[in-house]
Amino acid sequence: RFKAVIFDLDGVITDTAHYHYLAWKRLAESQGVHFDHAFNENLKGIDRMGSLDLILASSKRVYTPEEKLALADEKNRHYQELIATMSSADLLPGAVRALDVVRAAGLRIGLASVSKNAFTVLGRLGITDKFDYVVDAATIARGKPDPEIFLKAARELGVAPEDCLGVEDAVAGVASIKSAGMFALGIGHPFVLTQADVVITSLGDFNLESY
Ligand code: BG6
Ligand code: MG
Predict the structure, then answer these.
(1) What is the pTM of this model?
(2) What ipTM is given for this predicted complex?
(3) Which residues belong to the signal peptide in this entry (predicted)?
């Protein structure tokens, strides 16, 4: 019944969340801000500057826009060092099978990640050519939970939002899919992804016919 499937990247196709965690932790601690896995959960699906603002909210200092940009760049350089050694071994179980199932069913395939490193990560994973359209995060004005990124993917794929299935692991991402008027498949836990239409543990359980 769907005409397109639009995937998130981080946490759905590959587990870059751990690399983001390491890079944010070093940055936060350099500013005297405590950072742990629980806090990192709040940052899933949130863009770079939005994440930095959430971290610096616990700091006593006030930062100028220039200082914030420098900190965001520092975090990104560290993150890029960490992802430089990624390969197809970093694909999450079921990810390639899900992409191939969607392709075989004749549906269009999009990628809607707010990460400005998405093209690099896709390249390292070796799956760039599996997508008909990849949103360039640099062209997106409002990050998730705003629907902008999923709506842009649908428009570029030439498919109406109601004919799209969105796949997301983050609360903010599921909210973005739902406000875009799409069917939301959550990857994770139903207690967390309460807005999703269906929740599965991983793409290993992806079954296009049952949504
Ligand atoms: C999202 C991640 O996909 O991309 C976030 O879930 C990350 O954790 C965001 O902050 C932005 O990524 P980048 O690579 O542009 O800093
Ligand atoms: Mg994600």
Answers:
(1) 0.95
(2) 0.98
(3) none
